[in-house]
Amino acid sequence: MSVSIHWVRTTGPLISRIIAALFGGYAVAALASVAVLALPMSKPQAVLTGMLASFIVYACAVIWVFAVRSATKAWLGLLVVAAVLLPGAWSVW
Amino acid sequence: MKTDRNPQPAGQGIRQSMSSLHTWAGLLLGWVLYSMFLTGTVSYFKDELSQWARPELAHLSQVPDQAVVAQRVADEFSRMDGGVSQWSMRLPDARNNSVYAFWRTSARVPGQRGFAEANFDPATGHKVASRDTLGGEFFYRYHFQFHYMPVVWGRWLAGIAAMFMLVAIISGVITHKKIFVDFFTFRWRKGQRSWLDAHNTLSVFGLPFHAMITYSGLVTLMALYMPWGERAAFKAPAERAQLAAELSAFVPPGKPSGQKAPMASVEDMVRQAQERWGRDDVGRVNAVHPGDAAARVVVVRGLLGRVSMSPQYMEFEGTTGKLLNVRESVGPAAETRGVFYALHLGRFSDVVTRWLYFLVSAMGTAMVGTGLVMWTVKRREKLPNPDRPYFGFRLVERLNIASIAGLSLAMTSFLWANRLLPSSLDGRANWEIHVFFIVWALALLHALVRPAKAAWVEQLWAASALLFLLPVLNALTTQRPLWHSLAVGDWVFAGIDIMCWVLAGFHAVLALRTARQQAGFRSARKASRRAPIAVAAGGGAE
């Protein structure tokens, strides 16, 4: 029992980070690519700018997730960025 | 890269957590990435490999007049049974001695898209009578969509691998504090240190290229990976067409009028484009509804004179030949995408730039390869029992052998199959590919049953032998042996023959070095006071 608790304690945060990186990172990148549409640009250019930027956002999100001190902080960071991007994305969807 | 035993970054410094991230992001898809890198590297000579794969097609010492060739092939389409509702041809240029075209037939079975493709002879306009093969196109397609799986799955896999690569590059740079000092440090024959130094040198030297090639690779398929902005922005198909026009020269076909009308001279249209862009720099000619009153012809600029894949074209009315529209620029974001796309494919390159692309890309391949091998080298020293490594270690070790040495074998076998399979064989082009995968699977099997070190050495020697004998096979099975190619100045055939020998030598050196390092193994094992019975623990090229 204590072994499994120990396992969850030590491995849980790591799995949490991996999920944050793979899926959280993609979600933030996708959100950013939509939020770009709120900028004053023609639609095709904004769409392409969003696509071009999204991979950089994704990569930075993954680095962030593994660079910070705790899994909680990793998720919090992603949520803060998502909260900033959300109004922009909301306005165009 | 001091410790990565514990992949959990909690409570570690940023350099250590980045080191772990680098190790695992690099390893997990490392084998996929290695094969993408190597097939991508040889794809810089895709057109040359395709020429080599069709030895029946004569070497062109001069680019034929593209306008005349376009007319010839267009005439061939107008004679085709059942009618053609749309065609697109890539004109011959300095690197292509045939016209590759695909088309859509008018009379088609419901539910079928009715697409077909073929190569045409620029001299006659007829389909070429050459062996059925994908040639260099196979490595190119494998590079971003693999095989034996739906194209979209393959492209997603390639995208995920590229994203892992991007993360591995960034985390690798952060890990590496003394990036420039270490660049000038190379500790030969120092075991793990030498592998690390080799990995660092290959990575740092090519860093701008590796970063560019990885990011631009994602850009080539970005609409697939990140469709959300497009979905949010465009609700109507007409709006979507606006975006498509920024990316490609394929004009929407519209509806045919149903009225037959002869085509105006395609030759004249291409002539106008030649005046604008230069004699040999017309890339494609596309037509929709040829032979109908609503026909349109688009002549697309080639990729020689510009570092961009953005569409540049002249659109003509098919029946009168009247110039309707010239498009020579796209928006700033679209142009950025066009430039990254062009940088990735390198089709603008002259011979020297192309070789640079090949060399730096080969260094990227070696970077991934040394990284993979390093994973085992670093862990071997810490193995509790070197004669019986744990499962994960053995798995990585064996997969490394099959994906590095085995891939060389498989790719060379593909070229052997091209020369050996009878031209009458049904589905011949597919069989060349099956041979590639059969040999690769055999290499994996061999790597699993043989001691690791022996597997490395044997596969490297086998690859070296196959590469060395390929020019001999070419001389025996075609009319174009090396001496003939040299005599007539055919640098495509001569170049590939000579490159086979260079690569055979490279594999032989790797095999010799791997075999020689046996001594180091033994002493390492003595240190851990294990009887040197099984060589099973020996692996890697260390």
Helix and strand arrangement:
The complex is a heterodimer of chains A (93) and B (542).
Chain A: H1 2-35, H2 43-67, H3 71-92
Chain B: H1 14-28, H2 30-42, H3 46-53, H4 66-78, E1 84-90, E2 99-105, E3 115-120, H5 136-145, H6 151-175, H7 179-183, H8 192-205, H9 207-220, H10 222-225, H11 228-233, H12 237-247, H13 266-277, E4 282-288, E5 296-301, E6 313-317, E7 323-327, H14 332-345, H15 351-380, H16 391-420, H17 428-449, H18 452-477, H19 482-488, H20 491-516, H21 518-527
Antiparallel strand pairs in B: 1-2, 1-4, 2-3, 4-5, 5-6, 6-7
Helix pairs in contact in B: 1-6, 2-5, 2-6, 2-15, 2-16, 3-5, 4-13, 6-9, 8-15, 9-14, 15-16, 16-17, 16-18, 17-18, 18-20, 19-20
Rg on CA atoms of chain B, Å: 26 Å
Low-confidence stretches of chain B: 1-11, 519-542
The largest contact between protein chains, plus residue counts on each side, is: A-B, 38 and 40 residues
Class from secondary-structure proportions of chain A = mainly alpha
Order of helix and strand elements from N to C terminus of chain A = HHH
Helix and strand succession of chain B?
HHHHEEEHHHHHHHHHEEEEHHHHHHHH
- Strand fraction of chain B equals 5-15%
The major β-sheet of chain B equals: 7 strands, antiparallel
Main structural class of chain B: alpha+beta
Q: How much helical structure, as a percent, in the residues of chain B?
A: 55-70%
Helical amount of chain A: over 70%
Q: How many beta-strand runs of chain B?
A: 7
